[in-house]
Amino acid sequence: MKVFLSVDMEGISGLVRWQDVASSGIDFERNRRLMTGDANAAIDGAFEAGADAVVVEENHGVEDLCVLLTEEIDPRCTVVRGAGRPGPTTMSALDESVDAVFLVGHHAAGGTWPGIMAHTISSGRFREVRIGGRRVGEPDLFAIRAGEMGAATALVTGDQMVIEELRKRVPEVESVQVKRALGRQSGEIVPPVRAREAIREGARQAIERVASGEITPYRGEPAPYEIEVDLLEAPGASMRANLESLPEFELVSERTVATDAPDMDLGFRRIAYLTYADMEGRVRY
Ligand SMILES: [Zn+2]
């Protein structure tokens, strides 16, 4: 069994505020260690339950997506890191060889309250992202893409809100709540040492439940996907010009862009394009 482990930072045990996950924050170096620790706990649980391979993909968008401490990560895994990855960045290694997907340190969707550092793809650009009229977070996009690849979305770790949201789509997903969101930058945390024990156990259960057929690939979202993105700010002249030249995008109201996609490879890339579509003349994604 091969595991794809997407590791983000906002849902890591112990972390509650933006400065915890920004490279300018006073605790950033320590927090990288906490992130590596949560990932290692999940990797350990996966191997303990019989996984043959774990590929970790870095999902946190600072420092060109190079945040894990590579000298401390479990030597049995491999790690995909760095910017400019082919296809949908953060899903490069999610291919048909993967059996189970783990989402470690993930966070609730943009528009969710409370929700520790809740956002979808961009906290600075997007208010909310919807598919088929329903608000989605990054775990939803991973679950949909995993289903397309025939992989089961098996584990999520983070606050109570990211778990609640993913369970609406994948009710059987194994979950480990490492903190309880009280606001966007506040919460009640489980100390990381104890959180890691729970993550290891959750990962073990997740692999066993995939192996027994109890957790299966998610295929509940009908393609093509109808996507809407509410921007925080109305697009300026260069973004409007870019979108006008791309027939797959439509500005449907002052701040809402609609697009669609036959699969989540393209869907993810089209959503992500809107984070840099204001660059003059930038019409490729
Ligand atoms: Zn992140």
Protein traits:
285 residues, seven-stranded mixed β-sheet, five-stranded antiparallel β-sheet, binds zinc ion, Rossmann fold, single chain, alpha/beta
What is the global morphology?
Answer: globular
User: The CATH topology of the largest domain, please?
Assistant: Rossmann fold
Unreliable residue runs: none
Strand % is 15-25%
Largest sheet: 7 strands, mixed
Helix-strand string: EHHEEEEEHEHEEHEHEEH
Through-space gap between termini: 33 Å
Secondary structure tally, helices = 7
The portion of residues assigned to helices is 25-40%
CATH architecture of the largest domain: 3-Layer(aba) Sandwich
Structural class: alpha/beta
CATH superfamily grouping of the largest domain: Dipeptide transport protein
Order of the strands making up the biggest sheet: 3-2-1-4-7-8-9
Instruction: Work out the radius of gyration.
Output: 18 Å
Number of domains: 2
Ligand types: zinc ion
Name of the CATH class of the largest domain:
Alpha Beta
Mean pLDDT: 98
Total number of β-strand segments? Answer: 12
